[in-house]
Structure formats: C-alpha cells, structure tokens
Amino acid sequence: MLSVITRFALLIFLAFVAASLALANFGPFSAITAAICVLAIPLIYSYVNLARLRKYTVADAVETMPLPSGYWEEIFFRLQRLVGNLKQEIRTIEKQHDRFIEAFQASPNGIVMLDDQDQIEWCNAIAESFFGLNFKRDALQRINFLIRRPEFVQYLYKRQFEEPLLLERMGRGANLSLMLQVFPFGDKRHLLLVQDVTDLQKADAMRRDFVANVSHEMRTPITVLMGFLETMQSLDLDKAQQSQYFEMMMSQAQRMKSLVEDLLTLANLESNTLPAPMQVMNIPTLMALLKNDAEALSQGHHAFNFEVSSPCNLMGEEREILSAFGNLVSNAIRYSPDIGSITTNWRLNESGEGEFSVADTGPGIASEHLSRLTERFYRVDRSRSRDTGGTGLGLAIVKHIANRHQAQLIIESAPGKGSTFTLRFPKERIAT
After folding, report:
1. CA separation for the pair 344, 298 (Å, rounded)
2. Taking a C-beta distance cutoff of 8 angstroms, is the pair 73, 66 a contact?
3. Are the CB atoms for 128 and 112 separated by under 8 Å?
4. How far is it, in rounded angstroms, from Cα 343 to Cα 270?
5. Statement: residue 383 has pLDDT above 60
6. What integer best gives the mean pLDDT of the chain?
7. Residue 294 pLDDT > 80, yes or no?
8. The dihedral formed by the CA atoms of 384, 385, 386 and 390, expressed in degrees to the nearest 10
9. Of the candidates 323, 316, 206, 212, which has an alpha carbon nearest to the alpha carbon of residue 264?
10. HEC profile for the chain?
11. For a 10 Å CB count at each end of the chain, is N or C smaller?
C-alpha cells in the first residue's frame, strides 16, 4: 500500500513540476496541458497493458504473455503464476479422472452411476453391452425405462438393496446370466454393479447334473447287489445258483469300480491344467499294449488291424496317452457288432502333425450327437452302453487328455457307415 501511495505522490509531483515549468515559460494553458500529459502517460501505459492482458486471456495464453516493466510487471507475474497453478491442478484432476474412467472401463463388471432420480449419469462399455445401452444416447434417462424387466423394476422400487438380483436371458443373444446389486453413495446417488455369472451358472448346473448322473449310475448296480444279497439271505440256493448270483454281483461291483476309477481320473485331469511333460513314448510299444488289451476285451469277437505308418514317436505323459488311446479302442469294441473290424493307425499327416485314429464298422452316430459326445455321461444309446460296461466318461477323459497335450479330437461318423475317432497332435509333440 505504501508503494502505491509513493508512486501516486511521485506522479502528482512530476505533474506539478511540469505545470510549473510550463507556466513560467509559456503561460497557464501550457501549464495545464503539461500536467495532463504527465498524468496521461501512465494511464495510456495501463490501457495498453490491459489490452494485452485481454488479448492473452481470450487466447488462454496468459502464461506466455511477455511481462511489462514497472508496477504492472509484478501484477502480471503473480497472475501468470496463479493461472499456471490452477491449470496444473486442473490437469492433475483430469488425469486422475481419466485414470478412474480407464479403470472402470477395464473392469470385467458392468458399472452404472445413477443420480437421485435413478437417471444414468455414466456407465462403462461392459454395462452398455449387458443392457444394450448407449451412454451418449441414454445419458440422464431413467434406467427403469431402459431395463424393463419386471423383477428389476420391482428391485428398484422396493429400495431393498441388501441382496443382489439375478437376471436371466440378458444380453444381445439373451444368453447371459447377470448378477446385479445397487450400492448407495454420495448425495442420494447409487452405483449399479453388474457381474456376468453365466459361466458360474453353467458350472453349477453341470455340478448338479454331474451329481444326479453319478447318483443314477451308482444306484443301479447298488440296487442289483442289494437284491442279490437279500435273495441269498432269504432263499436256500444250490451251488450253481449261488455261483451265478456271485458272478452277477461281481459284474456290478466291477462296474462301480470302473465308474469310480474314471471319476478319479477325470477329477485329476480337471485339476491339472498344466501342459503334459515332453517325455518320449515309443509308439510300437504302446500299440502292442493296446492290441493285447483290445483282444482281451473283445474275446475273439472282432478283427483288429494295428498299423504304425510312421516311425516317429510321440512326446507326452505315457499313462495319460495310453488311457486316451485305450478309451478310443475300447469304445470301438463296445459299439461294434460281433465279427466287426477295428483299424487303429499312427501316422504323420501332410502338415507334420501326428494322428492316432481308430476306425470301426459299428452302427455309426447321427450328426446331432457328435458335438455332445465328450460331455460326461452323455450316451447315444444308454441301454447298449450299460450292457457293454461303459461308464459314459471315456470320451470326456480323452478330451481332457487331448487338451493337456495340445491335441484335437476329431470325430467322423454317419449312421450305417461306422465311426472314426482321431487324436491329432501338434508338430511340437512329435519326436523324430
């Protein structure tokens, strides 16, 4: 304040000096003119600086404005520093805002921000795909006008957000299961979080089906065993009948044992998602083992042809590969009629991939069943599978073993023309 008064006093003094000199030399009119000129100089200088300030303010370039001299220098310098600090704070806030938006966009869950009237303030791309929204189009629209499922409208109306809500048949293909929940925040605002639980729902359904199928598969042999045991306890049977009943009970017990073993094998494969080791296996030795097991299972009812068309061996887990190959061969035996022929071949295709194929002369499989053959307990003919001792898990085991070895299971079949099951292994699994 003192410097301002001093500068003003100096300006008045200079005007008085100029007026006095002019009065002494040129008269009263010249004195007034000289005083006005002295006073006008700083006013003109101030106007010029204000004009420059307006120019740079309109251009949003106050920070780059050249500093004037004198009293205005300090004012412009402080103004430039203030504007620079404000812009830096704004840039920092914008960066944080952009990071938050990027984080919300990267979230696998849908996020919708609602105001106190349940109008959409913001939503991420996942939420747009879940509900068919378009933020630019639907901003400030009430969400219950856009998502008109009765259960969702009722959920919003009741305002009881302690429990989540499950919406089925959502998404563009109406094939999604969405779990959503509303969380209050801020000034009567709400955050709608949406999670895609389609896979969890499918897994839960598969688990229920699996338990039901296992229970069903185990019930039959247990019922048979209990029936035979009750019969042997209540009736006085001769030696031949006892032997017959014991043989039937042994068959049912063996069936339960096979089912349990396949379940354990499948559980181990599902829990181990790592690629199989690269251990070299001798294909001729494997084929010899497969041939012995096949002939024992067939008991002379089928003709076999085991071919090794390539000298290259396979790299993987020998126990798993033998199980996969054995399941394909045993399936061919079970589903081929007596006096049928089964051809097993190991070769390299034109791309250098290894192929193990099993071709049979069985009844064949209709095309609508092919895509489901690797499902657990899926059978084309349930009665025949049980008669031949199948557990319904063989091809599911083959599929998991194939995945562990980066292999592909290819099924070719048609009714009345037999079936060919091929395991195709990548070149990286071939030992030359």
Report:
1. 15
2. no
3. no
4. 30
5. no
6. 83
7. yes
8. 160
9. 323
10. CHHHHHHHHHHHHHHHHHHHHHHHHCCHHHHHHHHHHHHHHHHHHHHHHHHHHHHHHHCCCHHHCCCCCCHHHHHHHHHHHHHHHHHHHHHHHHHHHHHHHHHHHHCCCEEEEECCCCEEEEECHHHHHHHCCCHHHHCCCEHHHHCCCHHHHHHHHHCCCCCCEEEEEECCCCCEEEEEEEEEECCCEEEEEEEECHHHHHHHHHHHHHHHHHHHHHHHHHHHHHHHHHHHHHCCCCHHHHHHHHHHHHHHHHHHHHHHHHHHHHHHHHHCCCCCCCCEECHHHHHHHHHHHHHHHHCCCEEEEEEECCCCEEECCHHHHHHHHHHHHHHHHHHCCCCEEEEEEEEECCCCCEEEEEEECCCCCCHHHHCCCCCCCCCCCHHHHHHCCCCCCHHHHHHHHHHHCCCEEEEEECCCCCEEEEEEECHHHEEC
11. N
For residue 3, the model assigns a pLDDT of 64
Buried b (16+ CB within 10 A) or exposed e, 63-96: eebeebeeebeeebeebbeebeeeeeeeeeeeee
The neighbour count for residue 213, using CB atoms within 10 Å, is 17
Report CA torsion sign: 57, 63, 68, 69.
Answer: positive
Q: Each residue of 140-169: b (16+ CB within 10 Å) or e? A: eeebeeebeeeebeebbeeeeeeeebebee
Sheet hosting strand 280-281, strand order edge to edge? 280-281, 313-315, 430-431
CA 68 to CA 77: how far, in whole Å?
9
Q: Which amino acid is at 211?
A: V
Q: How many CB atoms lie within 10 A of CB 191?
A: 14
Mean pLDDT, range 104-119, rounded to an integer: 87
> Averaging pLDDT over each range in 50-64, 146-160, 238-252, 365-379, which range is the top one?
146-160
Residue with token string 């349990």: 260
Give me the amino acid identity at 224. Answer: V
Tokens (6 digits) for 408: 């592909």
pTM: 0.55
Strand pairing report for 419-425 and 354-360: antiparallel
> Bridge partners of 420?
359, 412
Query: In which band, very low, low, confident or very high, does the pLDDT at 343 lie, cut at 50, 70 and 90?
Result: very high
Amino acid at 403: N
Torsion, Cα 138 143 144 148, to 10 degrees, reads: 60
Supply the pLDDT for residue 348.
92
